[in-house]
Amino acid sequence: FSPNPDSSWDAAYERELQTFEDIGDAGEIWFGEESMVRIIRWLEKQKVLLDSSVLDIGTGNGVLLVELAKSGYTNLTGIDYSPSAIQLAEKVREKEGLSNIKFKVEDFLDLSAELSGFEICIDKGTFDAVSLNPDDAVGRRKQYVRSLCSVLKPEGFFLITSCNWTKEELLNEFREGFEILEELPTPKFCFGGRIGNSVTALVFQRK
């Protein structure tokens, strides 16, 4: 793992941006197809209105929002601190001909004031990346929760997919201001006779 995680993500997105410009391929979907399907199914099952405001935290190449737009959702915003990621996401959006997705370069730990009032926030791996940063990981996690409270409306939903944290750990991280609604099913793996989950997916509601 590089000493500065930020620069390695940026470099990864710059490579993907180049690839997209060369061959029109959106590159890695960091958490794979099934995690996007899981999120969209949950929103549909909850009968979340199609014009509900959705924020994708650490949107990367924006593919999740593209899938949400194709499923009929119309009020979509994606943020990422990497300008290369946002450029890539905008190119993907243009290629798909979708106009109802907004992308912004934003650091979730240092947000601009106009980002607020979202009904749904989605995180696939961004909290993981924040937690891996060796500089003041605990402080960064606390700031993440504060930022989440400032962008998500009371009663709003927060859907998090994590590879690093167990359900119990996530419940502890988000205990202030959030309550768990449900755990979403994720693929199980078996290791040395013990069954575990490589991915945890939870839905919280802001109190």
Share of helix, binned: 40-55%
Largest sheet: 7 strands, mixed
Distance between the termini: 36 Å
Radius of gyration, in Å, reads 16 Å
Coarse structural class? alpha/beta
Q: Helical region count?
A: 7
CATH fold-level topology: Rossmann fold
- Give the strand tally: 9
SSE pattern, N- to C-terminal:
HHEHEHEEHHEHEEEE
CATH structural architecture: 3-Layer(aba) Sandwich
Multimeric organization: single chain
Low-confidence stretches are 25-30
Q: For this structure, what is the CATH class?
A: Alpha Beta
Relevant CATH superfamily = Vaccinia Virus protein VP39
Overall structural domain count: 1
Structure explained in plain terms:
The protein has a single domain, classed as Rossmann fold. Helix content is 41%, strand content 26%. The radius of gyration is 16 Å and the shape is globular. Helix 1 packs parallel to helix 4 (83-96) and helix 5 packs antiparallel against helix 6 (137-151). Helix 3 (63-70) links the parallel strand 1 (54-57) and strand 2 (76-80). The chain starts with a helix and ends with a strand. The chain has helices at residues 5-23, 32-45, 63-70, 83-96, 126-132, 137-151, 167-173; strands at residues 54-57, 76-80, 101-105, 118-124, 152-162, 178-184, 188-191, 194-197, 200-206. With 207 residues, the protein is of the alpha/beta class. The chain contains seven helices and nine strands; from the N terminus they run H-H-E-H-E-H-E-E-H-H-E-H-E-E-E-E. Strands 3-2-1-4-5-9-6 form a seven-stranded mixed β-sheet, with helices on both faces. The protein has a two-stranded antiparallel ribbon with strand order 7-8.
